[in-house]
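User: Predict the complex.
Assistant: Input components as received:
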Amino acid sequence: MSPAPADELDHKPLDGGWGWMVVVAAHISIGFAYSTPKVLSIFYKEIQDNLGASSSEIAWISSIMLAAMYAGGPVSGMLVTRFGSRPIVMAGGLMCGVSMVTATFGNSMVYLYLCIGIIGGCGLSLNLNTSLTIIGKYFLVKRPLANGLVMAGSPVFTVFLAPLNQYLLNRYGWRGSFLIFGGLMLNCCVAGALMRPVIVRCKTSNCAPQKNVEDKPNESNTKLKESCMKSAMSFFDWTFFKDRGFVIYLVGSILFIFGAYAPILFLSAYAIDQGVDEFSAANLLTIMALVDMFVRPATGLIASSKWVRPRIQYFFSLAMVFTGTVHLLCPMIIIKSYSYTFLVTYTVFFGIGFGMVFALIFECLMDLMGKERFPSAFGLVTMIECIPLLLGPPVAALLVDIFGDYKYLFFMCGTVILTGGLFLFVMNIYNYHMLEKEKPGKDGAQNQMNVEGQEHVSALEVEMKDTPEAEMERSEPEAKYANAVQREPQPESAETPH
Amino acid sequence: MSASWKQLSLQILLLLVSCRHINTKTPGPTAPPLIPIDQLPTDVRSVALKGESHTEKVELLNPVNLTLECTWTGNQDKLANITGLWRKDGEEVKNSNQTVPMENDQYNLKRVFSIVNEEDLGSYTCEFGSKAKIDFVLAAPQIGDVRDKPIVSYLGDFVVITCKMEETKPEPSTWYWYKANGTDKEQIIAAEEPLRYEIKNEERNTKLVVSSLVEADAGLYFCGAVYAISTSMSHVELKVISFYEPLKPFVAIVIAVIVLVAIILLYEKSQSKKNITAAENGTTDQTNTLTQGETNGHGESSSMRQRKV
């Protein structure tokens, strides 16, 4: 990356160098965050026998953990904006480690709910938000690729932790396994240590020579102070709901989350129902995780490309449409005699669709909100997503119970996801169309529109050159990538084609 | 002469009695039945063979007079007569060898067996010459859900060992627990040591709770599902380990984490120190470029800057 000009206001993302170490760190962090609720289920049978709990009681552990992880979003968003990524991820890792270690001595379900569910879930929520935020600070041009690599942490860790947990269980029983797993989660602290804070320099005439964005801004530049303070204080920033793009994204992702997890949870049961033996049915999930592992970075790579990056919202909606279609086709096409082969094919396509959506889901939010507003926006999104996350699987289970047939589950999930994808696609066309219409009127006063949370700091400076991120997100899709590309070879000019 | 008559009549009587026993009793030592053989319930199992061999599983709960019937359509030879034979566990049943004629295009073998106790269970085979045979495997309901991996627990902790009889199989009348002692099994009677053992029996499953574990508690435990005819056994292995065993890898991991974090933070500090000294010695211009858009780790960015992408 080339150096910024002397009067460069905002931080130019590194797009490489130490950024790749941060990608590794975020990969580990996200990996633990998403895979822990899944792989803990390996211990459940043993705990059930020992503590005399029923299946639904023990399943609550994972549900509480996931719910706490998503509901803690706004708090972690605020903490990240205030303190930066490093201390928060280290604190989160410590919390997770402590939660598992204390769970080792548990003798009742409520104790486990508290330790693993609440404390562990909160620790993970600190990890989740911060890891994605710091990617936004280190990457711009290659951000979709970085996001894809980071999100790949979830299937990678699932694939490795599942057999590891099985081994630990056989060797040490569930208590010893919790202890060792807690130790493993402390590796999030290592990940946190790698997340070096980003230092941004603001205008020499107005500010101190070096300023850390994450410090509480009390320098002379009032506009920066206001905007930074506002984003730090925006615990529940309801003004997000005025942002059309945000609302569209929110609706789409709610629909996706509602239908996303139920097929995974019931895949084995469906396979056994179709006559597949238990071992092969369990293998299906491993196949899906393996496919997912490679699809996520690949999607990130494609999304980083020149042609797709400006149209990334459409790419995201198409990925959702693809996933929904795969779900709908599964029960319609399945042939009983070749059920296992067919199920493997379905799992592969499901893995592709799932991986594509998840690689893009947070990249698209970053794309819409910009890196300053991302932590609070992400917090808000995850908190709202708690509801479909918790409702989706039980509703699907209810369908299975009522109709006695798994195909209605797939129909429901496929329809919901397909609707979400189509909604996103159509509404994004509408949104960009409206932005096009609004743009000519706002050219002159563009900077007034770019309020809190954008990277630019001073109104004066911004009038001279267009703000990179704002221009990228609000202008025409083609301009976005051209803008980003142009920043690389011509840092001084920082012009944008209009 | 009367003495010899008496002797003869006695012999004939003995012969009749023993003949009667030959028909109903199976070879091998058996305990005398508690219910007279005539009053046992009866059951029939018949199998029609289409091929050379077949195995039929028969699940029995109570003592029964079981009629086993074998039918064979024969092979291409279509002999008029064929030798029929019954075996139990591979050994020929006495006086079961007979000639079987072909009737209605098939061969038919039928015999009644008294199944009263555990020794009577096993594998009964009817053979047609050496050409075809049908195996009847007589057994009490077996416990299907056998846990092959050992249960691991800790000294001073408690452990719950469960045994379950599937829904599809009939309920046992009760459950017993045994601990392996060398090659023997010793029954665990919870009443004797209520502080250490507790047995909770529900119809289909049973739980053995062993508290305050000590090393001697490790080993093989057997649960027996008791039916009128016999007891089905299943086993689980228990391992007892001390808490130091998982603690060792845990401490190793924690130390590794601390070391890694220290290395990363020290490296970063040394990098920033290097760049601060470089900045102090460098020109203003260099200072400018150094302090812009950079991370704490100046190393990479400055080198990249020099490369001027």
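DSSP finds 19 helices and two strands in chain A.
Let me know if you want any component modeled separately.
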